[in-house]
Design brief:
Layout lengths: L19 H9 L23 E8 L2 H17 L3 E8 L4 H11 L5 E5 L4 H8 L6 H7 L8 H6 L1 E2 L2 E2 L2 E6 L4 E5 H7 L10 H11 L1 E3 L2 E4 L10 H11 L17 H15 L14 H6 L5 E4 L7 H4 L5 E5 L13 E7 L6 H11 L2 H10 L7 H4 L2 H4 L2 H11 L12 H16 L7 H15 L5
Parallel strand pairs: 1-2, 1-3
Antiparallel strand pairs: 3-12, 4-5, 6-12, 7-10, 7-11, 8-9
Helix pairs in contact: 1-3, 2-14, 9-10, 18-19
């Protein structure tokens, strides 16, 4: 696998995941071959002087929809020659809708995209999104306003595919019930707490009444997202799940095996974590109900603050540190992009830039949840007034670069790992040499497939 250059001249990591339906629709649209850049809009073209309509496609979400409702009137007031039309779709249907419009010639001018599910890489290879390098240059946009790791993550072979809309440092955050800590007489964890500390805290916080667990000591993130959570623990042990070019799965190396063993012990030796059949409703609902003393997730879980209210005091801390001296992290990015179909790329990019600017990023946080992928957003005093966001900033400022599969089948690899890890967390399987080898082989089989 080649090592293309980012705009920042640092090595980037390529990834994409393709659905069968999306590929079929892309074929109908006759896109450029994977790896070939779609036709780029001319950044030098003069903006339209007539009133024009910009259609943008977004994923439905309470936080995002609130932001769009807030920012669209402001943008149109500032740009009276542009009328914005939003077309939003449920997350489960989003990519199918985009592919259908691409194939039917009805695609709009700008779209939401993300690293999650490798959506942005699929859209790039499908011919849906255009590189914005020329638009950035023509508009005089300073890319250093966003986190470098976020810009790198959405750059393919030197082509910047969009601007970071939202971003967080991966499954790097441990949420804890401070009221429960006080109840058992424990000091709350500090930034230097260790994996061993975490086990002892979880044991002390675990609460049983009769034969019923009323509060679990700790839920590892691996139950919700095996790949992302195990990546953080593996990095805490000084390793990686993938080699540098994303061609080999490193589960059989010591750090990843230690991460698996540590997680398995929480479920099946220390018995402080709810097994899959003990999850009532969703993990978020269990956290809100006070049934989890600690849980690991991304910054997105902070959206539960309003639902928790004054039921208990809560706070966050970076993941417990392992032998490598870190708790593990990686960049996660949502983006907005200009489509290859847009007849008004300058105006579409103006809206993309507006959605990804400082004020939009801050408002996302004030609404609640993950914020814009910019240092000036994470460091805005309005957000830092919330103590948990001080921790988020420290984690984001020091987030580790993503490392993803080299054949653009990230989602497929993650799905295989999640399925094969569930019997481990349930106690049906043990992390033996034979079973871990079975997992490693199954995931490697995905990595050995050709690019879609």
């Amino acid at each position: 696998m080649s090592n293309p250059q980012h705009l920042s001249r640092r090595q980037f990591l390529r990834v994409a995941s393709f659905s069968a339906a999306g590929l079929a629709l892309a074929a109908c649209a006759a896109p450029a071959a994977p790896g070939a850049a779609p036709a780029a809009p001319s950044g030098g073209a003069a903006p339209s002087t007539e009133k024009i309509t910009i259609r943008f496609h977004a994923r439905i979400g309470q936080q995002e929809d609130t932001l769009y409702d807030m920012m669209m009137p402001k943008f149109m007031e500032e740009n009276p020659n542009i009328e914005l039309v939003r077309e939003s779709f449920p997350g489960a249907e989003y990519q199918t809708k985009i592919s259908t419009m691409l194939a039917g010639g009805t695609l709009g001018d700008a779209i939401w995209s993300a690293l999650g599910g490798a959506t942005i890489y699929f859209q790039w290879a499908q011919g849906t999104i255009a590189p914005i390098n020329d638009l950035v240059s023509a508009a005089g946009v300073d890319l250093s306003e966003w986190y470098e790791g976020c810009i790198n993550a959405i750059t393919m072979e030197g082509n910047l595919l969009g601007l970071p809309f939202k971003a967080h440092p991966g499954w790097a955050v441990t949420y804890y019930n401070a009221t429960a800590y006080a109840e058992v007489g424990l000091d709350v964890p500090t930034a230097d707490w260790t994996l061993d500390d975490q086990i002892e805290y979880a044991k002390a916080l675990h609460k049983v009444e009769g034969d019923r667990v009323v509060r679990f000591g700790y839920l590892p993130g691996a139950l919700e997202h095996a790949w992302k959570a195990l990546l953080c623990v593996t990095r805490a042990y000084g390793g990686q799940l993938l080699n540098e070019d994303g061609s080999r799965f490193l589960l059989m190396e010591d750090p990843a095996r230690q991460a698996i063993q540590y997680t398995w012990d929480l479920f099946n030796v220390h018995n402080v974590a709810p097994k899959p059949d003990q999850i009532l409703g969703t993990v978020n609902e269990m956290w809100i109900a006070g049934a989890l003393a600690m849980n690991t997730a991304g910054t997105f879980r902070s959206i539960a603050a309003s639902a928790i209210g004054d039921a208990f005091e809560w706070m966050v801390v970076g993941n417990a540190k392992g032998p490598a001296g870190v708790g593990g992290s990686d960049y996660e990015v949502d983006a907005f992009c200009v489509t290859t179909a847009s007849k008004h790329p300058n105006e579409a990019f103006k809206w993309v830039e507006y959605l990804c600017n400082h004020e939009s990023g801050v408002q996302l946080g004030l609404i609640g949840g993950t914020v814009g992928g910019r240092p000036d957003v994470y460091g805005d005093p309005r957000l830092l007034a919330f103590p948990y966001r001080v921790v988020f900033k420290e984690l984001m400022d020091n987030a580790q670069a993503s490392r993803v599969v080299g054949n653009w089948r990230q989602a497929e690899a993650e799905s295989v790992l999640a399925q094969l890890c569930q019997p481990l967390w349930a106690g049906i399987e043990q992390p033996t040499e034979a079973y871990l080898s079975q997992i490693a082989t199954a995931v490697q089989d995905v990595l050995d497939k050709p690019r879609p």
